[in-house]
Design a protein that fits this description.
heterodimer, A: about 170 residues, mainly alpha, 7 helices, about 0% strand, globular, B: about 325 residues, 16 helices, about 70% helix, elongated
């Protein structure tokens, strides 16, 4: 798999991880997403952006997986603190450690949000889709996406403050 | 004049609005009643109100009841403020609120940090097997073959998913069986009766006396007669080899003579779910098969090969 494929795999794996919060499950799910994308490549139209199309396929696979998991739950559940190896290595070790703690805190806070708010943050703030693309993907009006996004971010911030009031303060 | 009437006229007296009659009656009561005299003196002096501190959330409560919750409205605009898309006037209002609200200030701080931290969460590295497994699942095979197999699979599955498939299959199967075995002109019309007679045990007849019990003996006789009649005609090493093989097969058939009866016992044990008997029968059948195998692989058999090889004319 080439460089572009590796970048996409990192992105897809991160996307799947935010749905299932388990490394092994996210790995299998990301494989399914890749295979689904590979098989659906014929339906991709050249005049549309690839990222929203890819995330739409990935979201559908994730939702199908979650529905199946609802009917047949896994034997064991793993905590999110057990670790997801994040791929950011741009900063020095101390800053990286601080950032890693922050990310773990954010992941824990994300798990406490409702699925709608979590998905909104995942699509807009994590994956970087714009409001119009999210509105097309979720098939909801643009104003609804805007208000949901704002509400989700504030909810996440309040959840983080509830878990760690010193979040972001200088040590 | 009563004290209650005096209190009612007190404000008019202080403002000079009483009629002459009322003023005269007011002055008479004022001279007679010390309590009302003290009240009139207190009302004429400066007002003494004790200083009281208002509750901390008085302003917020009033604003919440008049124009909605301030923090809620401010936090709804905080995201736009963090993104830099908030209008100047609303920005000033939010900034003014944040200056006096520690909670909204903290939320704004976290939102600013989340703007930097959240995009980094889109990257997570899978393990090394990931790419290999994905490539294994997406490797292009012969596309035409895959397409045909997929089409065949989808057609088969759509056929199987039909609700009446089992009923139709039963109809078709019964029709085929009736055509093959039931028509008067079919060459196989006697087969069911013969098969039934072959396995049927008559009342009072021992299981060993059934027609199946004679099968090994028939095979043995057939083999012996075949080799005895055909063997002597073949001279040389091939004839010797066949004679030896014939003796091996005869001994093997004799060793496996109990296999049919053991097979019947196994079937009966399985039908009655008698597992100890099933296990014992399987062990006996294993012993029979071992004896057959031993007869077939005796050294004499190897000697036969060697002898035949030795007898082969060499150039």
């Amino acid at each position: 798999m080439g460089g572009a494929g590796a970048q996409v795999s990192i992105r897809i794996y991160g996307f799947a991880f935010h749905y299932v919060h388990n490394q092994d499950e996210a790995r299998d799910l990301a494989q399914d997403i890749f295979v689904r994308i590979y098989r659906r490549l014929g339906t991709f139209q050249g005049n549309q952006a690839f990222l929203p199309w890819m995330l739409r396929v990935a979201r559908n696979v994730c939702i199908d997986h979650l529905r199946r998991r609802t009917t047949r739950p896994p034997r064991s559940d793993r905590r999110v603190e057990d670790g997801c190896e994040l791929a950011d290595s741009r900063r020095n070790p101390q800053e990286q450690t601080i950032s890693l703690d922050r990310r773990r805190l954010i992941q824990r806070a994300l798990r406490r949000l409702s699925r709608q708010n979590r998905e909104m943050i995942l699509l807009k703030d994590i994956q970087g889709l714009n409001l119009r693309e999210i509105a097309d993907l979720l098939a909801v009006p643009l104003g609804t996406v805007k208000s949901r996004s704002s509400r989700a971010r504030v909810e996440l911030a309040r959840t983080i403050l509830g878990m760690d009031p010193s979040y972001g303060c200088a040590p | 004049m009563s004290c209650r009437t005096f209190e009612a006229l007190l404000a008019g007296h202080l403002d000079g609005r009483l009629s002459p009659t009322a003023r005269r009656r007011f002055q008479e009561h004022l001279a007679d009643c010390p309590r009302c005299r003290a009240l009139e003196a207190a009302a004429r002096g400066p007002l003494q109100v004790p200083a009281m501190k208002p509750p901390a959330n008085l302003v917020a409560s009033v604003l919440e009841r008049t124009s909605g919750r301030v923090c809620g409205r401010a936090q709804a605009l905080l995201c736009e403020r963090v993104d830099g898309s908030l209008a100047a006037m609303e920005g000033d209002l939010v900034a003014g609120h944040m200056a006096s609200c520690a909670e909204c200030m903290a939320v704004a701080r976290v939102l600013s940090l989340l703007r930097e931290d959240l995009p980094s969460l889109c990257r997570a590295t899978p393990d090394a097997r990931f790419c290999r497994d994905v490539l294994a699942r997406t490797r292009p095979l012969d596309r035409r073959l895959v397409r045909r197999l997929r089409r065949w699979y989808e057609d088969s599955m759509s056929l199987l998913r039909r609700p009446r498939f089992a009923l139709e299959a039963a109809y078709i199967g019964a029709a085929v069986l009736a055509l093959v075995f039931g028509t008067p002109f079919s060459p196989l019309r006697e087969t069911p009766r013969r098969a039934l007679a072959l396995v049927q045990v008559q009342p009072g007849q021992a299981p060993e006396a059934s027609p199946l019990a004679g099968v090994p003996a028939r095979v043995t006789a057939w083999t012996r007669s075949g080799w005895e009649t055909g063997g002597p005609r073949v001279a040389g090493p091939l004839g010797i080899l066949k004679n030896r093989l014939s003796s091996h097969f005869l001994r093997a058939a004799g060793a496996g003579q109990q296999l049919p009866s053991h097979g019947r016992q196994l079937g009966a044990a399985l039908v009655h779910l008698d597992f100890p008997r099933t296990w014992a029968t399987l062990a006996a059948m294993g012993a029979d098969l071992g004896a057959v195998w031993k007869e077939l692989t005796t050294p004499e058999h190897q000697e036969t090969h060697q002898e035949a090889k030795d007898m082969t004319p060499r150039n």
